[in-house]
Amino acid sequence: xxxxxxxxxxxxxxxxxxxxxxxxxxxxxxxxxxxxxxxxxxxxxxxxxxxxxxxxxxxxxxxxxxxxxxxxxxxxxxxxxxxxxxxxxxxxxxxxxxxxxxxxxxxxxxxxxxxxxxxxxxxxxxxxxxxxxxxxxxxxxxxxxxxxxxxxxxxxxxxxxxxxxxxxxxxxxxxxxxxxxxxxxxxxxxxxxxxxxxxxxxxxxxxxxxxxxxxxx
Length: 217
What we know:
Layout (H helix, E strand, L loop, with lengths): L1 E3 L5 E3 L2 E10 L12 E10 L10 E6 L6 H12 L1 H14 L10 H27 L11 H10 L13 H11 L13 H25 L2
Antiparallel strand pairs: 1-2, 3-4, 4-5
Helix pairs in contact: 2-3, 3-6, 4-6, 5-6
Protein backbone atom coordinates (compact mmCIF):
# COMPACT_ATOMS: atom_id res chain seq x y z
CA UNK A 1 0.00 0.00 0.00
CA UNK A 2 1.38 3.43 -0.99
CA UNK A 3 1.58 5.85 1.96
CA UNK A 4 3.58 8.91 3.05
CA UNK A 5 5.90 9.28 6.02
CA UNK A 6 5.85 12.08 8.59
CA UNK A 7 7.73 14.39 6.19
CA UNK A 8 5.34 13.72 3.32
CA UNK A 9 7.79 11.54 1.39
CA UNK A 10 6.45 8.42 -0.44
CA UNK A 11 6.62 5.16 1.47
CA UNK A 12 5.19 1.67 1.20
CA UNK A 13 3.31 -0.41 3.77
CA UNK A 14 2.80 -4.17 3.71
CA UNK A 15 -0.51 -5.01 5.41
CA UNK A 16 -1.92 -8.23 6.81
CA UNK A 17 -5.69 -8.25 6.23
CA UNK A 18 -8.31 -10.27 8.09
CA UNK A 19 -12.09 -10.02 7.96
CA UNK A 20 -15.03 -11.77 9.59
CA UNK A 21 -18.79 -11.30 9.86
CA UNK A 22 -20.32 -10.39 13.21
CA UNK A 23 -23.92 -10.32 14.38
CA UNK A 24 -24.45 -7.29 16.60
CA UNK A 25 -27.48 -7.29 18.93
CA UNK A 26 -29.14 -4.08 20.10
CA UNK A 27 -29.24 -3.28 23.85
CA UNK A 28 -31.50 -5.60 25.83
CA UNK A 29 -34.08 -2.91 26.46
CA UNK A 30 -34.38 -2.07 22.75
CA UNK A 31 -34.34 -5.49 21.12
CA UNK A 32 -38.06 -5.32 20.35
CA UNK A 33 -37.62 -1.98 18.58
CA UNK A 34 -34.38 -2.53 16.65
CA UNK A 35 -33.18 -5.57 14.68
CA UNK A 36 -29.80 -7.22 14.99
CA UNK A 37 -27.14 -6.12 12.52
CA UNK A 38 -24.86 -8.30 10.46
CA UNK A 39 -21.60 -6.43 10.01
CA UNK A 40 -18.12 -7.25 8.78
CA UNK A 41 -15.04 -6.34 10.80
CA UNK A 42 -11.90 -5.70 8.74
CA UNK A 43 -8.55 -5.71 10.50
CA UNK A 44 -5.52 -4.34 8.62
CA UNK A 45 -2.18 -4.44 10.46
CA UNK A 46 1.17 -3.43 9.03
CA UNK A 47 4.01 -5.91 9.19
CA UNK A 48 7.04 -4.60 11.05
CA UNK A 49 7.52 -1.15 12.53
CA UNK A 50 8.23 1.75 10.15
CA UNK A 51 10.95 4.21 11.15
CA UNK A 52 9.52 7.52 9.94
CA UNK A 53 5.80 7.20 10.69
CA UNK A 54 3.23 5.58 12.92
CA UNK A 55 2.45 1.93 12.29
CA UNK A 56 -0.82 1.32 10.44
CA UNK A 57 -3.44 -0.66 12.32
CA UNK A 58 -7.04 -0.22 11.25
CA UNK A 59 -10.13 -1.93 12.64
CA UNK A 60 -13.17 -1.17 10.52
CA UNK A 61 -16.83 -2.12 10.86
CA UNK A 62 -18.99 -2.03 7.75
CA UNK A 63 -22.43 -3.14 6.60
CA UNK A 64 -21.20 -3.22 3.00
CA UNK A 65 -20.75 -6.68 1.42
CA UNK A 66 -17.31 -8.21 1.98
CA UNK A 67 -17.11 -11.67 0.42
CA UNK A 68 -13.44 -11.86 -0.46
CA UNK A 69 -10.02 -10.38 0.21
CA UNK A 70 -10.51 -8.21 -2.87
CA UNK A 71 -13.68 -6.75 -1.30
CA UNK A 72 -11.83 -6.10 1.96
CA UNK A 73 -9.00 -4.29 0.12
CA UNK A 74 -11.55 -2.17 -1.71
CA UNK A 75 -13.14 -1.04 1.57
CA UNK A 76 -9.70 -0.25 3.01
CA UNK A 77 -8.88 1.87 -0.04
CA UNK A 78 -12.12 3.77 0.49
CA UNK A 79 -11.23 4.32 4.14
CA UNK A 80 -7.78 5.60 3.11
CA UNK A 81 -9.59 8.49 1.38
CA UNK A 82 -11.24 9.62 4.61
CA UNK A 83 -8.90 12.61 5.04
CA UNK A 84 -9.81 13.95 1.59
CA UNK A 85 -13.50 13.44 2.34
CA UNK A 86 -13.13 15.32 5.65
CA UNK A 87 -11.36 18.20 3.88
CA UNK A 88 -14.13 18.33 1.26
CA UNK A 89 -16.74 18.62 4.01
CA UNK A 90 -14.64 21.27 5.75
CA UNK A 91 -14.76 23.39 2.59
CA UNK A 92 -18.50 22.76 2.33
CA UNK A 93 -19.01 23.79 5.97
CA UNK A 94 -16.40 26.50 6.63
CA UNK A 95 -15.96 27.92 3.15
CA UNK A 96 -19.45 27.70 1.65
CA UNK A 97 -21.01 27.93 5.13
CA UNK A 98 -23.71 25.45 4.18
CA UNK A 99 -24.93 25.17 7.79
CA UNK A 100 -25.69 28.88 7.94
CA UNK A 101 -28.28 28.70 5.16
CA UNK A 102 -31.64 30.27 6.03
CA UNK A 103 -33.63 28.32 3.44
CA UNK A 104 -36.84 26.89 4.87
CA UNK A 105 -37.66 23.97 2.58
CA UNK A 106 -35.77 20.74 1.99
CA UNK A 107 -36.01 21.14 -1.80
CA UNK A 108 -34.33 24.55 -1.76
CA UNK A 109 -31.68 23.32 0.64
CA UNK A 110 -30.90 20.32 -1.57
CA UNK A 111 -30.47 22.60 -4.59
CA UNK A 112 -28.17 24.92 -2.64
CA UNK A 113 -26.02 22.08 -1.34
CA UNK A 114 -25.78 20.64 -4.86
CA UNK A 115 -24.25 23.93 -6.05
CA UNK A 116 -22.00 24.11 -2.97
CA UNK A 117 -20.74 20.58 -3.68
CA UNK A 118 -19.60 21.66 -7.14
CA UNK A 119 -17.83 24.72 -5.71
CA UNK A 120 -16.24 22.69 -2.89
CA UNK A 121 -15.10 20.02 -5.32
CA UNK A 122 -13.39 22.63 -7.51
CA UNK A 123 -11.56 24.22 -4.57
CA UNK A 124 -10.40 20.81 -3.35
CA UNK A 125 -9.49 19.65 -6.88
CA UNK A 126 -7.35 22.71 -7.61
CA UNK A 127 -5.57 22.37 -4.26
CA UNK A 128 -4.77 18.69 -4.83
CA UNK A 129 -3.87 19.24 -8.49
CA UNK A 130 -1.20 21.69 -7.39
CA UNK A 131 0.35 18.95 -5.24
CA UNK A 132 -0.04 15.94 -7.52
CA UNK A 133 0.69 17.41 -10.98
CA UNK A 134 2.15 20.90 -10.43
CA UNK A 135 3.54 21.11 -13.98
CA UNK A 136 0.18 20.60 -15.69
CA UNK A 137 -0.99 23.50 -17.90
CA UNK A 138 -3.19 26.07 -16.11
CA UNK A 139 -6.04 25.37 -18.56
CA UNK A 140 -6.44 22.02 -16.81
CA UNK A 141 -8.46 23.73 -14.08
CA UNK A 142 -8.81 27.41 -15.02
CA UNK A 143 -10.62 29.26 -17.78
CA UNK A 144 -8.83 31.67 -20.13
CA UNK A 145 -10.55 34.74 -18.56
CA UNK A 146 -9.41 33.57 -15.10
CA UNK A 147 -5.83 33.16 -16.33
CA UNK A 148 -5.83 36.62 -17.93
CA UNK A 149 -7.24 38.22 -14.77
CA UNK A 150 -4.66 36.50 -12.58
CA UNK A 151 -1.86 37.71 -14.86
CA UNK A 152 -3.21 41.24 -14.59
CA UNK A 153 -3.94 41.25 -10.85
CA UNK A 154 -1.04 39.25 -9.41
CA UNK A 155 2.37 40.12 -10.73
CA UNK A 156 4.94 37.39 -11.30
CA UNK A 157 7.81 37.24 -8.87
CA UNK A 158 10.76 34.89 -8.79
CA UNK A 159 9.37 32.52 -11.43
CA UNK A 160 11.15 31.62 -14.65
CA UNK A 161 9.41 31.47 -17.99
CA UNK A 162 8.69 27.73 -17.90
CA UNK A 163 7.15 27.94 -14.42
CA UNK A 164 4.74 30.63 -15.61
CA UNK A 165 2.96 28.09 -17.83
CA UNK A 166 2.09 25.63 -15.02
CA UNK A 167 -0.99 25.16 -12.87
CA UNK A 168 1.18 25.46 -9.76
CA UNK A 169 2.18 29.01 -10.71
CA UNK A 170 -1.45 30.07 -11.08
CA UNK A 171 -2.61 28.28 -7.95
CA UNK A 172 -0.09 30.35 -5.99
CA UNK A 173 -1.50 33.47 -7.64
CA UNK A 174 -5.00 32.46 -6.53
CA UNK A 175 -3.70 31.78 -3.02
CA UNK A 176 -2.02 35.20 -2.92
CA UNK A 177 -5.41 36.77 -3.63
CA UNK A 178 -6.61 34.85 -0.56
CA UNK A 179 -3.80 36.09 1.72
CA UNK A 180 -1.09 33.51 1.05
CA UNK A 181 2.35 35.11 1.45
CA UNK A 182 4.19 32.69 -0.88
CA UNK A 183 7.46 32.88 1.03
CA UNK A 184 10.25 30.48 0.16
CA UNK A 185 9.71 28.24 3.22
CA UNK A 186 5.90 28.35 3.22
CA UNK A 187 4.09 25.02 2.70
CA UNK A 188 1.88 24.63 -0.39
CA UNK A 189 -1.32 26.70 -0.18
CA UNK A 190 -4.22 24.96 1.50
CA UNK A 191 -7.94 24.84 0.85
CA UNK A 192 -8.82 27.89 2.95
CA UNK A 193 -6.60 30.38 1.10
CA UNK A 194 -7.57 28.79 -2.21
CA UNK A 195 -11.23 29.25 -1.25
CA UNK A 196 -10.69 32.91 -0.37
CA UNK A 197 -8.65 33.53 -3.51
CA UNK A 198 -11.16 31.87 -5.84
CA UNK A 199 -14.01 33.74 -4.17
CA UNK A 200 -12.26 37.05 -4.79
CA UNK A 201 -11.30 36.04 -8.34
CA UNK A 202 -14.92 35.16 -9.12
CA UNK A 203 -16.11 38.56 -7.86
CA UNK A 204 -13.48 40.32 -9.97
CA UNK A 205 -14.33 38.25 -13.04
CA UNK A 206 -18.03 39.06 -12.64
CA UNK A 207 -17.21 42.76 -12.19
CA UNK A 208 -15.03 42.75 -15.30
CA UNK A 209 -17.77 41.06 -17.33
CA UNK A 210 -20.41 43.56 -16.16
CA UNK A 211 -18.04 46.47 -16.81
CA UNK A 212 -17.32 45.25 -20.34
CA UNK A 213 -21.05 44.90 -21.01
CA UNK A 214 -21.83 48.40 -19.74
CA UNK A 215 -18.91 50.05 -21.54
CA UNK A 216 -19.50 48.03 -24.68
CA UNK A 217 -15.95 46.64 -24.84
